[in-house]
Amino acid sequence: MTVSTIASRAEYTGNGSTVAFAVVDTGGASAVIPVLDATHLQVYVDGTLKTKDTHYTVSIVTATAAATVTFITSPTDYTPASSTSIVILRVIPYTQLQDYVNNDAFDAENVESALDQLTQALHQIVDDKDRSIKFSSTIASSDFNTDEETASKITSVKADRASKYLSFDADGDITTSITVDGVSYTETSIATGDILVYNGSAFVNTKLLPRITQILDSSGNEVIKFGTTGSAVNEITVTNAATGNPPTISATGEADKGIDFENSEGEELLKLASVSSAVNEVKISNAATGDNPTISATGEADTGITFENSESEEILILDATATAVNEFTIANSATGNAPTLSTTGDDDNIDIIIDPKGTGEVVIGTGSASGKITTNSTQDLVLDTNAGTNSGTITITDGADGNIDITPNGTGEVNISKVDIDSGTIDGTDVTVGAGKTLDVSAGTLTTSTTQKQAISATAFESGTKMLFQQTSAPTGWTKVTGSGNDTALRVTTGTVGTGGSVAFETAFASHTPTITMSNAAHTLTTAQLPSHSHPFGGWSSGTVNPTLNSNVMIANIFGNETGGWSVANAGGGGAVGSGSSHTHNNTATSSAINLDVSYVDVIIATKD
Q1: Cβ-contact 285, 294 below 8 angstroms
Q2: What's 417's DSSP letter?
Q3: Which partner from 113, 190, 266, 388 sits 20 to 30 angstroms from 345, CA to CA?
């Protein structure tokens, strides 16, 4: 096997999901770092050594010695978290296990394996050397007052090294001491609380800092700057404290002076004002992991905190209650969610009380948009009074097609002065319309229960009112009329109502075929029944006793009168026609069935109780 890289480490950054990491030269061309045995690998995650077969496993391709470290995910997930540092080191033991026997066969694989391990061990030493503090190879030997080995070797024993600084002596050789810029102090010359101050030629220990203007960090950068004011009389005093008490930063000088905090432009950021004879104050406390820092009012018992504007006008008062166990919690939220104002504390069920002053009201909305009240997630919204004691409720049911239930308490009622229902129904609830009011459902549908229908019927019809119903039994609240009127027809009248007729409906309107009877008795015409007619006769001359008459005319008596005229009486005789016998009229008539079996619907007559 050839060794094509001098690298002996692979470095990765976790992403929270990748578990397999190849042992390759991650700082170069990703050449394989040969691994002969899984025990030759050490794996560190953020500097912590992990255990093989507990946190990870190792797989090696025998032909190429290419290894892969795979972190275990079950039953415990050891996947490296995002941004964690993963370092895989190849650590070769500095041992030689090959034993070559005289005159034995010379096994090239064993020799090569030993050479590979030796080469890898050298790579390992190079990696350790590169990470060690050392003198650069570019420093000439003449630059050392002694020699390279002496200059880089620490010869002090443990007792001499304890609590000392690592430094270089006058020859530039590494050593340990407590020297600072050439000024040495013995253990007895430094007292607790002393500060090293440079006096122009050396550092001296003192407890005072005269004319100090700034404090710098190790790189010479400003950490704290101290400004000055002419004729200043007020200052900040920092006081330490005994066991159990905190140090104090206080404004001292004139009485009742606070502390102002400003930005780099001299603009005020925070003012800590003072009040004469103050006994109450604000306390800011930090917190352990999982808890929130606290801003609290301390001093007298049950003292709250008041927030004011620049005109000393109250903006917010956080009042206190003795032995309080419940409180408000205000939580912010991520994108798309609303901040939360909730009640928290020791009690299981805690209300939120909003108490307007006097006749004030709770106003919701911006004035330019509708105010809305809703629930958190898929819960019903219930409105009641007095925490539900002796109170009706209005319940808005969550979910598609949810109901809005208005439930009075006890025998209470829902009184609505005016309501407009565009669509939908009112069901399951009694609706009472006040005196002088109208329930108008002309544009919709009024759906009622049986009980409600009875209630409406009871008030809509006077007792004794009769109506027709197409049903066998009378509806509730009505009595079926059975004494008379069965199988009868209805007649409309503009006068007084009554009954009449004797033929039943079914009988009168059954299918009938009429019978026609005609009389053919002999009949003799009377003179009055003859058509009007006359019998003329021929002329005659006066004085003629026997005038000549037309044929078929008989003159019964002819008398002369005194004037010589003529008169005729008892006309008869002559050529008589007809026998005067009776005659008949033959009549023929036909008949067919008349179907009067009309369709009908049965109804009953019922009387309102």
Answers
A1: yes
A2: S
A3: 388
The backbone torsions φ and ψ at residue 128, rounded to the nearest 5 degrees and listed phi first, read -65, -40
**Encoded tokens for 47:** 């500097």
DSSP state, residue 142: G
Would you call the peptide bond into 75 cis, given omega within 30 degrees of 0 as the criterion? yes
Residues contacting 549, CB < 8 A, separation 6+: 537, 538, 555, 574
- Token look-up 């630059």 returns 143
Residue 52 to residue 43: CA distance in whole angstroms: 8
Phi (first) and psi of residue 166, to 5 degrees: -85, 120
- pLDDT for residue 189: 58
In tens, the pLDDT along 328-387 reads 898 899 999 888 888 999 999 998 888 899 999 888 888 888 888 888 789 999 999 888
d(CA 473, CA 605) in angstroms, rounded, equals 10
| DSSP string across 309-349 | -TTS-EEEEE---TT--EEEEEE---TTS--EEEEEESSSS
Q: Is 224 helix (H, G, I), strand (E, B) or coil?
A: strand
Specify the DSSP element, H or E, that contains 22. strand 20-22
CA-CA distance, 430 to 408, in Å (whole number)? 11
Domain ranges, ordered by start, for the chain: 9-130, 461-512+591-609
Closest CA to 88 of 4, 7, 2: 7
**Helix (H) or strand (E) run with residue 126 in it:** helix 108-130
**Rg, Å, the chain Cα set:** 66
Closest CA to 55 of 88, 32, 9: 88
